[in-house]
Design a protein that fits this description.
single chain; alpha+beta; six-stranded mixed β-sheet; 3 helices
């Protein structure tokens, strides 16, 4: 449902979505951040997608840094995400950027069946 209403979802306070486009305005990737459903003290990294042509070029790292900077400007101290072990490169990137694995999910995303990895990053002041 969120994918059908992204412009509405990311138009709310403490929410933002960024896209990466090529010279012809074709969307090649994107990602967002919004309050975690069920725990408004956290912002959740959401909907991170990149076409294969972008992978390995640092775009995900730059976009995540944009998310971290946005979260700090909104007064948040931590970022949360949920992912799956099938996305090995993404999990590795999250670990390199300081995300720590959690034993159980936070909030109420409803992704617990599909996403068995839960991570939290403390934002630097």
């Amino acid at each position: 449902p969120i994918l059908d209403q992204m412009s509405e979802v990311y138009h709310h306070p403490n929410s933002q979505y960024w896209v990466i486009v090529d010279q012809h305005d074709n969307v090649l990737g994107g990602g967002g951040i919004a309050p975690l459903l069920g725990d408004s003290t956290l912002l959740e990294i959401q909907k991170m997608y990149f076409l294969p042509v972008l992978r390995g070029q640092g775009f995900a790292k730059k976009l995540l840094q944009q998310c971290f900077d946005f979260a700090k400007t909104q007064g948040f101290y931590d970022c949360y995400l949920e992912t799956t072990a099938a996305l090995k490169e993404a999990v590795s990137l999250y670990e390199r950027l300081g995300f720590q694995h959690l034993a159980q999910p936070r909030g109420q995303t409803g992704h617990s069946q599909a996403c068995e990895i839960w991570m939290l990053k403390a934002l630097e002041a």
